[in-house]
Amino acid sequence: MSSIIKFLESHLSQEMALLIISALPLVELKGAIPIGHALGLSTVKTYFISYIGSLLPVPFILLFIRKIFEIMRKNKKLSKIVDKILNKANKKAKDMNKKSYLALFIFVSIPLPSTGVWMGSLLATIFGLNRLYAFLVIAAGNSVAALIMSLLSHIFIKG
Asked: CA angle, 125 as apex, 51 and 62 as ends, to 5°?
């Protein structure tokens, strides 16, 4: 990860690098906010850049992930990746009420590994939730996760 950060920083502004980092799966804003603070960016700037960046993939996931998975399933190796992703999503789904926007909000709000906007968007798609409502709920949950991470990061990194 540090090599990715250094590469992005050397070719882009800190803000643009942070925006891209926050859009990455697994990293999202949970990783981007501490990185922003470590780079010396203000808490407010880090919050908003990380929040916006982490939401960038959500519409694409909500709109296109089913079609992308269909295409990937045509390749034997890629089909295994799809199966792995869906198995992980189904394990997470067992803890959620399949039609509950509140469950989706709580799921995205908790800043733990694999509980962010990428997995939330995938779960919303799997459950067949309304895309617009799902986006709004994911965005709201993401703002809570960003607030939690900003507070923790401000305490532990900015001190």
From this structure: 45
